[in-house]
Amino acid sequence: EAGVAQSPRYKIIEKRQSVAFWCNPISGHATLYWYQQILGQGPKLLIQFQNNGVVDDSQLPKDRFSAERLKGVDSTLKIQPAKLEDSAVYLCASSLEGPAEQFFGPGTRLTVL
Amino acid sequence: GNSVTQMEGPVTLSEEAFLTINCTYTATGYPSLFWYVQYPGEGLQLLLKATKADDKGSNKGFEATYRKETTSFHLEKGSVQVSDSAVYFCALRGSSSSASKIIFGSGTRLSIRP
Known about the structure:
The complex is a heterodimer. By secondary structure, chain A is mainly β. Chain A contains no helices and eleven strands. In chain A, strands 2, 4, 5, 6, 9, 10 and 11 form a seven-stranded mixed β-sheet that branches. In chain A, strands 1-3-8-7 form a four-stranded antiparallel β-sheet, with no helix packed on it. In chain A, a hairpin with a 7-residue loop joins β9 and β10 (103-104). Chain B has strands at residues 3-6, 11-14, 19-21, 23-26, 32-38, 44-50, 56-59, 62-65, 75-77, 86-93, 102-104, 108-113. The termini of chain B are far apart. Chain B is mostly beta strands. Chain B has no helices and twelve strands. Chain B is 0% helix and 50% strand. The interface between A and B is medium-sized, with 22 and 19 residues.
């Protein structure tokens, strides 16, 4: 069974530029999550989708971050404009239902210069 | 709110040594508790879990017991191997519908010397 796919794996941009990340969850998984993992910290949930609806985006900085999951499968996370403090690994995860058994992708490491 | 505190790393041990990584939590009600592992270059994987007090989760020789009286979920392994080198995250999920997201600790990096 294929795992959660993410691209790109690495991205370097300058502050105030825009960036987008892509995630393809495990086939059949209705729930999709985006996490931000800053160096030395645990992952922090940014947004949770159930199919193509948002369940929780309470920790998403909505002035610069946006995410969508059209058709309830793939998802994109965008940052516009990026700040230095956005440097982190962005993890995508999916689950059949609920948060208990999440499967994580390898992450996208973003460096903002 | 809910939170998880785990011992800071890095932790360096020799092969076949006994491992303990401490984890304590703060939560209302009866959360579910988890240990995740992140091997170099890979995504997080669920290592083990426990969903109620006194439950013991186990996998790949690792164990952790849900202790409600001490609000702890310490990770243990009797004899570590070089292949156990990774970052370990303690995590919890709240018991109420309004607190169902997973909260992660800051992670503990474990290095095993041959």
